[in-house]
Design brief:
Length: 144
């Protein structure tokens, strides 16, 4: 990914929730932008097929991830995950106020839709026991 600024890495991703469904289960993963880059390529994320990536971070990383997805689509190497991005800073100042219902409404709706779509999708590919939705920010601070 030279020039895009992100190096794909499956290290540090956290599985925080799972729902058994049909032939596999859907797992919610939390990570950083490098984990999202890994999910957008052929690099495995702990043997889990990532069907959706919800990006809540900088426009720069979202742009890099979109470029990576376009490259993967043109190479026909892997079916890329569905990708949604929402701009938000990883850092809050002590006087910043976050209204979760207002400020995170769209990303939470996208996350809910991704989990539902992944749950109702076809059976995971051979060798993969689960499907996952990866929610990530730029740096992955304050994860479980």
């Amino acid at each position: 990914m030279r020039g895009l600024g992100l190096q794909p890495s499956a290290d540090g991703v956290s599985a925080v929730w799972s729902r058994p469904e049909g032939f596999g289960k859907v797992i919610l993963l939390l990570g950083n932008a490098s984990n999202a880059a890994a999910a957008c390529t052929t690099m495995p994320c702990a043997g889990i097929s990532v069907s959706h990536v919800v990006s809540v971070g900088s426009w720069r990383n979202a742009k890099s991830l979109r470029a990576l997805l376009e490259t993967e689509k043109s190479n026909l190497v892997v079916v890329p995950p569905e990708f949604r991005s929402f701009q938000m800073s990883d850092w809050l100042r002590p006087d910043d106020k976050v209204d979760i219902a207002r400020d995170l409404a769209e990303p939470l709706e996208a996350l809910d839709a991704a989990i539902d779509a992944s749950s109702s999708g076809s059976m995971p590919s051979e060798g993969s026991c689960s499907r996952a939705v990866l929610l990530h920010c730029d740096l992955g601070h304050n994860r479980v």
